[in-house]
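Here is this case:
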Amino acid sequence: MKLIECPRDAWQGHHPFIPTEQKIRYLNLLLQVGFETLDFGSFVSPKAMPQVSDTAEVVERLDLETTDTKLLAIVANERGAEQACTFAQIRYLGYPFSISETFQLRNTNANLNESVERVRTMQKLCEESEKELVVYISMGFGNPYGDPWSPQLAEQRVEELAQFGVKIFSLSDTVGVAHAHDIRSVFQKLIAARPDLEFGAHFHTTPHAWREKVQAAYESGCRRFDGALLGYGGCPMAQDDLVGNMPTERLLEFADEKKELPPIDQKVLGEALNYFRQIIG
């Protein structure tokens, strides 16, 4: 199993600004744990997401000499993608493409047609900069706005964006509404139809519902999972009542049960967890 740790998603809705020095110390601990990828920051409007306004400073001070963990930065438009592409340290750019037009407008200030063109442009930028684009299919299992959704619509959107050369898609349960049968339906259809693409799961969940979501995705062939320590955070652009991220501890527990646990340094993981508790009080 590939495990992607998402501190950026954990702290982006945290209102007291976390000092840059604390972010750097925390991220440098996470880089030594053994995660596949670290979703560490965003190149977005400082006004929209002040918590990650120091991403450019942070990335320059990360210790990447002794780690195989790759860096992923979230971008919301072409300008952010261009900025992210100037940093050699960053391997992946992540763009949230929502099935729900309501959320796309709230999250990136673009309608779906505009968002398709952004993906086209970002993929070209990534190819020119030797980076990879990860497209997050936001509201991938339904939405709270009454916008159209179905497994077929999710598949159509993936097909539309894959034609630009995008190879990695992460299906996002942005507000924690996914049911196991929908998760199975979406992943089974996509993985069967496009074995040449990599599909991941970015679940938000309540504490009691995590296992059924992970189990449904895993049984359908998904092996890429996003998480955040303590299940902290959520998307502040989606709704007022945040639904936490998938707890990384639960993903590690599940991977261990399936004998697919990556080589994780438990000692450093414990240090990172304790330090994160200090940061968020």
User: Anything to note?
Assistant: Residues 159 and 194 are 9 Å apart (CA to CA). Residues 112-128 form the longest helix (17 residues).
